[in-house]
Amino acid sequence: MGAEQQCDDMEVAFSDSEAFRSVQHVLQSVRMDPFLIDLRDKEQYDILLCAVDSTTRRSSDDQAMLATTLRALSEAVSKIDIMYHHALLHNIFTMSIWYYNRDTRDALLDLIIRLSAVADQYLRECLQMLVNNFTPPGPLVPQMEKRVSDDKRKEIYSQLHESLKMISDTVPLAPRVLKDIINRSMPKLFDNKVMVSFVECMLGLGTERLGDLIGTSLLEKVVDLLTELDVNITWEDILQEEHSKGIFEMELEDLAGDVDKFGQETEVLFGGNVCAEKLDGLMVVVCKHLKSCAEHGCLKREFDILKTIFRKGVLKVHKSKFAQFIMFYACSLDPEICGLDFALFLTDIFTKKEDDAIARMSAVSYVGSYLSRARFISADTVVAILKRLVDWCIDHCERQKKKHTRTKNPVEHQIFYASCQAVMYVLCFRLRSIMDYPNLRSQVFKMNIRSILMDPLEPLKVCLPSIVNEFLRQAKAARLFNASVDLELEDRIDSDLSKAFGGVNRLDMFFPFDPYLLKKSDSYIRPNFEFWSLVKTTYSDDEGDELGDFDAPGMNVDSLDDNFDIELNSDDDDIEYTMNKMSITPHRSFYHPMAMSGDSGLSMPARIRPSVSPPS
Predict the structure, then answer these.
(1) Burial of 615 (0-12, 13-18, 19+ CB in 10 A)
(2) How many Å apart are CA 228 and CA 323, to the nearest integer?
(3) Does the predicted model carry a pTM greater than 0.85?
(4) Poorest-pLDDT segment among 30-39, 317-326, 454-463, 495-504
(5) DSSP string, 419-437
(6) Which pLDDT does position 572 carry in this prediction?
(7) Which of 250, 276, 364, 521 is in the most buried spot, having the most CB atoms within 10 Å?
(8) Residues in Cβ contact with 25 at an 8 Å cutoff, skipping those fewer than 6 apart
(9) Comparison of pLDDT for 486 and 80, the residue scoring more
(10) Can you tell me the distance from the alpha carbon of 373 to that of 429, in angstroms, rounded to the nearest whole number?
(11) Does 584 have pLDDT greater than 60?
């Protein structure tokens, strides 16, 4: 191959072999005190510096010359010395591969790989240069994002991954150094770096051998970033968004027949906020990564890492609204293994005493929300998890019976109330589907749910009234349970008792898998997400009539209407919602009295937002 370069009106033409001899001579000739260097050699070294100037934009012909020069430097890498060639190394390490064609990129990356192998010399600089290229060059980010096609972006990422893999194979210390460099280079919340591009390239390392060495660290950094962005999106931000008008409307709001490609009613999704847009883009990247892991048979490994990260950094972050959905999506990719594993994982945290009360309450809130919303979780799994929750509650009640005094203290028994609420919430969503299977229906009837709900601790009066009433209505229709409960709701959807057991974090209103509101990544979540609008309840068939016969064992059907009595202190004129409108998210319904329609009953809290308290 021949090439031609012009630099400061000096023209040089040479072949690859000639270039190698020339570069080797130039490098050797300046390895001495600057005052002793021959002026002609100094001029030739300046030409070499100009040839690899990282600030120069090059034509195709110029890139051919650059590629030739880089290959010559690769062959002469043993002649490069940090003491005498500092300017040359600076030019090399500040080059951006995003400006170059494939041949030039290959030549540059080959040089970086060879330099990294020089003992105790340039490893950190080489790795830093590669990590710097995870994103397009800063000054040209807007233009580069428009000009760089997806194919070229993927090609560049692949070249970077391959280079890092080769370095890690050659230099045993490389993975540890790379981990530290990525930790330091990870975009911060308000960095001007291209955050999504950086994370996309970084996650690609997890599919290589490097993933076994630094995969946990990479995922932990990503989840930390997701969570940090998430908690910086406040509901005040969302309410101020013009695009989000109506997102706090109830989940069954009449949307004028607006139907998406999945045949579901669409909601107005959240956009426009800087943190939300970054988070949305990152969620897309992470979901793509998890999908790729599933396709390559390594999802379980990634999922196990995510579980550990989730327990450490997400479980008790009650202001998180979206980041936890990476777990939801990972489970949807492998329901039989990951989906079941996550349900058991959460249940174990709740039932065991290794964690503090907040972690256990958070876990049972996650269980309730997850089993309710995950379409991919089978009914038999739901029943099995419910049995563990109910059994724990029964044990708790039995322990209380042995005490001399038993009081309805929401704070003292907050874990118990959280579990009772989770059981009722899940059954509001899943009871009808469970009733369709005789064996599962029988198991539910044998759980003795009545004993815990009618215990002197009175969970029916402490848990969120909206959940209690919807559960009682469905339980009545299914002939599972009947009760007479006097609920003084006044004009609020919660109660002083639910606030007390929820604590300062309002865990009584923490349902982490509420409807997902990010625009781009919504398509990954929606197909596997159960919306309340699509739930079949036990009290209505497909035509909206009361269901006639569940053949429940041991129930006195004739006494149901007499015993089932829910009193609400509100005026008929103040009815704010029916089964076509429901939510306990902070929105206008908090400022209006609530009541139960004689035809439709109280509505389910479909969108319960974390760490947001309704006004007193």
Answers:
(1) exposed
(2) 9
(3) no
(4) 495-504
(5) HHHHHHHHHHHHHHHHHTS
(6) 35
(7) 364
(8) 44
(9) 80
(10) 8
(11) no
For residue 158, what pLDDT band results from cuts at 50, 70 and 90? very high
Alpha helices per DSSP H over 117-194? 123-132, 141-147, 150-170, 174-185
Q: In terms of Cα–Cα distance, which of 372, 328, 367, 379 is closest to 526? A: 328
What integer pLDDT is reported at residue 214 of this predicted model? Answer: 78
Distance CA 130, CA 412 (A): 55
Q: Which residues pair with 485 in a beta bridge?
A: 566
pLDDT band at 510 (very low <50, low <70, confident <90, very high): confident
Which of 360, 389, 385 is closest to 371 using CA atoms? Answer: 385
Tell me the sheet residues that pair with 5.
12
Q: In angstroms, rounded to a whole number, what is the distance separating the alpha carbons of residues 54 and 400?
A: 74
Average pLDDT over residues 436-457: 93
341 with 303: CB under 8 angstroms?
Answer: yes
The rounded distance, in Å, linking the Cα atoms of 310 and 177 is 26
Mean pLDDT of 124-133: 96
Q: At what angle do helices 299-313 and 210-231 cross, to 10 degrees?
A: 40
Distance in angstroms (rounded) separating the CA atoms of residues 197 and 285: 9
Alpha carbons 513 and 502: distance in angstroms, whole number: 17
Q: Are 314 and 225 in contact (CB under 8 A)?
A: no
609 and 514 in contact (C-beta within 8 Å)?
yes
Dihedral of the alpha carbons of 475, 479, 485, 489, in degrees to the nearest 10: 30
| Joined tokens for residue 383 | 């029943």
What is the residue whose two structure tokens read 């970086």? 112
Q: What distance in Å separates the CA atoms of residue 231 and residue 93, rounded to the nearest whole number?
A: 37
In this structure, is the dihedral angle defined by the CA atoms of residues 507, 513, 514 and 520, taken in order, positive or negative? positive
Sign of CA dihedral 357, 360, 366, 369: negative
Query: What CA–CA distance (Å, rounded) separates 569 from 70?
Result: 81
Backbone torsion region of residue 233, taken as left when φ is above 0, otherwise alpha when ψ lies between -120 and 50, otherwise beta: beta
Up-side HSE of residue 84: CA atoms within 13 Å toward CB?
A: 18
352-to-358, 363, 370, 393 alpha-carbon distances in Å: 13, 11, 19, 13
In the chain, the percentage of residues whose pLDDT exceeds 70 is 70
> 285's torsion region: left (phi>0), alpha (psi -120 to 50) or beta?
alpha
What is the CA angle 136-132-289, rounded to 5? 75
